[in-house]
């Protein structure tokens, strides 16, 4: 492999790791309507948890866009949608 292929593979591998981490966090801390209430926003612990949930949702969404992008197609010959499905299936177990 050449250095460019190594870099491309490293980018994809890191995206997979980050996606799995976001899915795991959201599995254990789902976004529920009760964390969006004004009472929850006033509670420091709930506010911190809400912010972490929102960060992980944003990370998940960004990575899903990456796997569906032309940039991903440039870096890899994998099908991004299939890869997302496989990662999700692994995280359900």
Keywords:
mainly alpha; elongated; 93 residues
Description:
The protein is mostly helical. α1 (3-28) runs antiparallel to α3 (44-67). It has helices spanning 3-28, 38-42, 44-67, 70-75, 80-92.
User: Outline, from the CA principal axes?
Assistant: elongated
Range of helix content: over 70%
Instruction: Report the structural category.
Output: mainly alpha
Number of helices: 5
> Describe the biggest sheet?
none
Beta content comes to under 5%
End-to-end separation in angstroms reads 33 Å
What is the number of strand segments? 0
Q: What letter string, H or E per element, gives the SSE order?
A: HHHHH
Cα-atom Rg, whole angstroms?
16 Å
Low-confidence stretches: none
Mean pLDDT across every amino acid position = 95
Chart the SSEs and their pairings.
Layout: H1 3-28, H2 38-42, H3 44-67, H4 70-75, H5 80-92
Helix pairs in contact: 1-3
Compact description:
It contains five helices and no strands. It is mainly α and 93 residues long.
């Amino acid at each position: 492999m050449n250095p460019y292929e190594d870099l491309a593979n490293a980018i994809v591998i890191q995206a997979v790791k980050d996606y799995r981490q976001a899915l795991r966090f959201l599995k254990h801390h789902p976004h529920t309507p009760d964390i969006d209430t004004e009472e929850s926003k006033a509670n420091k612990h709930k506010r911190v948890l809400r912010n972490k949930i929102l960060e992980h949702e944003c990370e998940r969404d960004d990575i899903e866009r990456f796997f569906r992008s032309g940039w991903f197609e440039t870096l890899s010959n994998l099908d991004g949608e299939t890869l997302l499905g496989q990662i999700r299936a692994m995280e359900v177990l």
